[in-house]
Amino acid sequence: MLIQAELVWNHPDDGVLEAHEFIPMADLTGMTVPIGRWMIDDAVATLARWRAQFGPAVAELAVRLPSRLAIDQDLVGMVRSALDEHQLPAESLSVWTKATTLDDERGDVRESYALLADLGVRVGLLITHPSQFDVFTGDLPLHDVILAESMVELVSADYPVETSATMRGLHDFLAKPFEQGIRVSAQGVESRDQMQRLAELGVSAVRGPAIHQPLTASAMEKLLAEAGDPANVSAGPQHDT
Known about the structure:
Elements: E1 2-5, E2 8-11, E3 15-18, H1 19-29, H2 32-54, E4 60-64, H3 67-70, H4 75-85, E5 93-98, H5 109-119, E6 122-127, E7 144-147, H6 149-155, H7 165-179, E8 183-186, H8 192-201, E9 205-206, H9 217-227
Parallel strand pairs: 1-4, 4-5, 5-6, 6-7, 7-8, 8-9
Antiparallel strand pairs: 2-3
C-alpha cells in the first residue's frame, strides 16, 4: 500500500485548512522550511511506526513538498536526518513537487533530486498542464510522474481516447516515463469513469475520493489494523489511498 501524507492545519477558528490555503502565508513569513522540516520528520516517524506495527502492508509513504521547501538547500539533509533517526529504509519514502518548481532560480531541485535518488528515496514531479509535457528529460532522476486534478479533468471529458488531440498528446508524453519504468499515478480522481480512462492510458495508481476520503493519521492507523485482520480482507484491485 502506498499512502500519501497531506499537510493540513487544524485552525482554531477556521477549521481544517489545506496546504494551498496557508502555505502562501508561510512563504511570506519564512515559516515554510521550519514547517517542512517538522512535516518530513513526522511523516517518516509515522511510517516507521506503522511499518513496525503492520509490516509490509505499508510499503511506502509519499510526501508532497511545497515549492519553497523543494528548493531549499537543506532538503537532502532534512530527509537523510529523518531516515537515520527513525531507522527507515530510504526506498520506503517518496517525495514530489510541482514540475514548475524546476524553473525556480532560488534553488536547484535537479541537484537535490539526484542526491535523494542516490540515497534511495523515490522522487517525482506533479504535472498540472499539458504545456509541461516536455519537462521529462532523461537527465532528471525520476521515479514518479503524478497527474494533477487539472489533468484528470481533461481525461474525464466525454470523448474517445483515440480521437482526442489532448489525449493523444498525453498518451505520447506518458510513453516516455513508461519506457524507463517510471511509475505514473493521478490524484484527485473522483469517479470510476476517470479511473477507467486513466487505466486506458496506462496509469497504474490513483488517489482521490473515488478510492477513499482523506483520513487523519489515527483513522488511517485504524484502517490498517482492520486490513490486517483476515476477516476484513477482500480480493480486488489495489490503489493508492
